[in-house]
Amino acid sequence: MTGVTGAATAGDQIRVMIVDDSAIVRGLVSRWLEEEQDFVVVATHRHGRLAAQDMTQSRPDVVILDIEMPEMDGLTALPLLLKAKPDTVVLVASTLSQRGAETSLRALALGAADYVPKPDPTGRLATSADFRRELVEKVRHLGQRLRTRSAAGLRLPLGAPAVKPATPAPAPAAPAFQPRPQPPRGTEKLRAYTGIPARVLCIGSSTGGPQALMQFLQGAGQALARLPVLIVQHMPPTFTTILAQHLGRTANREAAEGVDGEPLAAGRIYVAPGGRHMLVEKVGEKPVIRLSDAPPVHFCRPAVDPMFESVARVFGSAALGVILTGMGSDGAKGALAIADAGGNVIAQNEATSVVWGMPGAAIAAGACAGVLPIEDIGPRVSQLIVGGRA
C-alpha cells in the first residue's frame, strides 16, 4: 500500500482502535495501518467491554469494530463507544454473509459511520488486497472527515432512524417554489432545473449511503409511485439483497435486486446486485434492466457511472439523478451525461454527507441543478416528479 506523501506528525495522525476477538486479525490490521504514515494504532482489544472502558484513555478517532466477539459483541458495544467519545467514527467489520449484512445495517442505524465486509476465513483476509485497500481508504477518509469537521466545531452526520415501514407523505398538489441553495464554498455553478417531468429516478451512493437512502425515501413519499427507482449502492453480494429489503420496508413499496431482462415498472425500487453493474436498455419500446459483468469502474461493481450513463441514453431529458454521500468520484461522469441530455441532477450537500467525495465530484463537474441537505432532497425530488420544474 502507498502511504501519504511526507511523514505525518503525531498530532496529524489518525488515531485508530482495533476491536476483534482474533489476535491474528488485530495484528494484521495493525500492521497494514502502521505501514501508512498517517495512522497510529492507539489500542487493540479482544472484545467490546475492554474497548468501551478504554475509550477515554486511548481517545481514538476511528474504531474498527468486529461484530461477533465473546464477553461483549460489537452491537452491544457500539452505543457504549459512542457514549464514551461521541465524536469517534466507528467502522464495523462483518463477514460476507446474510447475518453479517443484517448486522451491519443494524449497526448503521445505531450510529456506525460505515461497514467493511471481512473475508472469511482469516487466511483469505490476509491475502485480500481488495479488503486491505477498502479498509485503509475508509479509515483514512472517515478520519480526515472527522478531523476537518471537529476543527470547524461540527459533528459527522452519523446514524439513521430505526428501519420501520414508513407512511408515505401525500404528494403535493403543486411544487412549492423555494430559493435554490448556493453550493458550498461558493465556487461551483449550478444548472437551471428543467421543466421536463421525470420518468425515471436513479440514485448513486456509497459511504453513509444506507442511512441517507432511508431518509431520502421517507422524504420522497408517494411521488415514488409514479416512476421506477434505480439504486446503485457500493456493496457486495448478499448485502445488497438485505439492503433492498430494508429500503422496501422504509419506502413501503416493492424493492428487490434488479434482474436481467426485467421490465421497469413505476413504483418499484431496483437495487443493483453486489458484484454486477446494473444498466438500462430499451427492448422494443420498453426499458428493461441489464446486468453486466464488465470490469469494475472506480474499483466498484456495481458502479454508478455505467447506470447513470445508460439511463441518460434511454430516458434523455426525462431522467432525474441523485448523488448521495460517498467516497471517490463515481457518478460524476454519469451525472454529467444526464445533465447534458437535459435531465436534472441533485447532489447531497457537504454538511450532511458522511463523506463528500461523490456529491462534490458531481458538483465540480458542473452536472447539478441542486445541492441540498439530505432532509430536503426527498421533498425536492417529489416536487420534480409531481410538478416538473422546481
UniProtKB/TrEMBL annotation:
Major localization class: cytoplasm
Positions of the catalytic residues: S206, H234, D330
Top-level taxon: Bacteria
Keywords: Chemotaxis, Cytoplasm, Hydrolase, Phosphoprotein
Annotated ranges, domain CheB-type methylesterase: 192-388
Residues covered by region (Disordered): 166-186
Residues where 4-aspartylphosphate is found: D66
Catalysed transformations (reactions): [protein]-L-glutamate 5-O-methyl ester + H2O = L-glutamyl-[protein] + methanol + H(+); L-glutaminyl-[protein] + H2O = L-glutamyl-[protein] + NH4(+)
One Gene Ontology cellular component: cytoplasm
InterPro entries referenced in this protein's UniProt entry, alphabetically: CheB-like (IPR008248), CheB_C (IPR035909), CheY-like_superfamily (IPR011006), Sig_transdc_resp-reg_Me-estase (IPR000673), Sig_transdc_resp-reg_receiver (IPR001789)
PTM summary: Phosphorylated by CheA. Phosphorylation of the N-terminal regulatory domain activates the methylesterase activity.
Record function comment: Involved in chemotaxis. Part of a chemotaxis signal transduction system that modulates chemotaxis in response to various stimuli. Catalyzes the demethylation of specific methylglutamate residues introduced into the chemoreceptors (methyl-accepting chemotaxis proteins or MCP) by CheR. Also mediates the irreversible deamidation of specific glutamine residues to glutamic acid.
PANTHER family: PROTEIN-GLUTAMATE METHYLESTERASE/PROTEIN-GLUTAMINE GLUTAMINASE (PTHR42872), PROTEIN-GLUTAMATE METHYLESTERASE_PROTEIN-GLUTAMINE GLUTAMINASE 1 (PTHR42872:SF3)
Family assignment from sequence similarity: Belongs to the CheB family.
Protein name as it appears in the record: Protein-glutamate methylesterase/protein-glutamine glutaminase
Upper taxonomic lineage: Bacteria, Pseudomonadati, Pseudomonadota, Alphaproteobacteria, Hyphomicrobiales
